Amino acid sequence: MVLKLKISMFRFMRCFYGILLIDLETHRSLQILFRLVDGMVIETVVIPCDRGRTTVCVSSQVGCAMNCQFCYTGRMGLKRHLTTAEIVEQVVLAQRLFTSEVGSITNVVFMGMGEPLQNIDNVIKAAEIMVDEQGLHLSPRKVTVSTSGLVPQLIHFLNESNCALAVSLNATTDEVHDIFPCLDLLENTHMVWKSLSPVYFVG
């Protein structure tokens, strides 16, 4: 089957953006490349699911400082944090553009460009807007923030938000997981069990 690509340019709120639309019958995903007002570019991905769930994967930073070896974004280094508006606009735009093709947006994951907990204040504010009745009105259980394991920010997030948290360990030893030692993460699991947020540990 021939891959169908459609590229368009639009003006949306504070962002210029280009859309790379991939045919749903072939790749089952849609990518949006945002060009921000300062010329920086970020990526958002819309992921439909046959079970009636449609997930938007949003970015929280331009680039990333974590330098995870498996992640291309880490090679860019950190350029800047996204504002609360720039994070929320990614979901709003996905809803406006793709609802007719893939159905309503049901889930949001902060698993795009950047380490969300390095931009924790704007991420928490964005998540609040996403779950607020006057905002996007998603369930807190349907909004998941992913982190590579920044312990102080992780604790702050659990104290401030009832959205879900995914901790990506990517290692079983401190030599490999050098962002924060695995023991520090384990010693703070009591915060996890006391929190109201669902927490997932991903290997």
UniProtKB/TrEMBL annotation:
Domain of life: Eukaryota
Keyword DNA repair: no
Presence of keyword Cell division: no
Cofactor: [4Fe-4S] cluster
GO terms of molecular function: 4 iron, 4 sulfur cluster binding; metal ion binding; methyltransferase activity
Coiled coil, from the record: none
Limits of the Radical SAM core domain: 50-203
Keywords: 4Fe-4S, Iron, Iron-sulfur, Metal-binding, Methyltransferase, S-adenosyl-L-methionine, Transferase
GO BP term, example: tRNA methylation
InterPro entries in the cross-refs: Aldolase_TIM (IPR013785), Methyltransferase_A (IPR040072), rSAM (IPR007197), rSAM_sf (IPR058240)
PANTHER family: 23S RRNA METHYLTRANSFERASE (PTHR30544), RADICAL SAM SUPERFAMILY PROTEIN (PTHR30544:SF9)
The protein's name in its UniProt record: Dual-specificity RNA methyltransferase RlmN
Organism the protein comes from: Rhizophora mucronata (Asiatic mangrove)
